[in-house]
Amino acid sequence: MRCWVGLVIAALLTTGSRASDAALRITEDRGGPIEKYISRYERLRASGQPVIIDGFCASACTIVLAAIPSSRICVTSQATLAFHAAWDFGHRGRPVTNSGATRMLYSMYPVRVRQWIADRGGLTPRTIFLHGKPLKAMYRSCSS
């Protein structure tokens, strides 16, 4: 086993590859618990890895915009971000808006994203989508 690890490390060193050189590609992420994404993206921020948004990134996935410097994020023509109010399961399992979590989530986003959200009525139970020219005006396009 030690030999195997040594060979992998030697291969990485000789090719000049580092973990931070590999980009994280987001293609189909529908979100989930906010805490999970904050933790995941804090580790990603510390790693130095760039992020390519190349598909659907919804709900808590969009926290990537708050956690990763914009200089390390690029978007493709396929990128779509979906925003809505945070919610919890209420009585009988029905979704109930969590106002505190929604305010926290909104405050985390970069100013340009917050302004775009505000111009569309804020974070509500209704989902709003950021893609195309408006998204590319905020984030650089990925080079092929």
Automatic annotation (TrEMBL):
Keywords: Signal
Signal peptide boundaries: 1-22
KW Signal (keyword) present: yes
Highest taxon of the lineage: Bacteria
Protein name (record): Blr5178 protein
